[in-house]
Amino acid sequence: MKIYMIVLLRALLFVSLAIMVYDVVWIEQQFELMGRGYIEGFSTNISTLMGQVFIVITIILLILNVIQMFAMKKKRHAKVEDYILPEYDASDERSVAITGRAVRIAFGFILLSSFLLLGSYMLLPTYFLDFVWYPMFTTAAIPIIGLAAYLISFKVLYSR
After folding, report:
1. What number is the average pLDDT over the span 72-98?
2. How far is the C-alpha of 14 from the C-alpha of 7, rounded, in Å?
3. How far apart are CA 107 and CA 60, in angstroms?
């Protein structure tokens, strides 16, 4: 259950950051269009909800990492990676091997999805004008795809 929560929190962190960046880029784009004379003016409503979600998720992840750090300090043979990843249990050799395989699979998915998402920019040559949201959300999708691939492969390998 802990791995589901960690992966979900990390995915939400990337989504909330992408939405925050989208809001800022959209406003900057409108100012640029207005400065060049393409539009007379614009109105916008800035919401702080995504910023608050980002801060809350960051705090939760930091608290989980601090709790993990104190739990690992009790073990005398703890390694650095035991402190960094709360879902990683280095005391179980089977879990270490499964995590290694799951990370390799996730890395493969990250490479493939990066290639496909970067290639998709060719299909939208005016994405910076018409689809300003597209680069932010495709960039945020890359680590989310890796996290999902890691979670699914870890659970499949662990169930065997």
Report:
1. 67
2. 11
3. 25
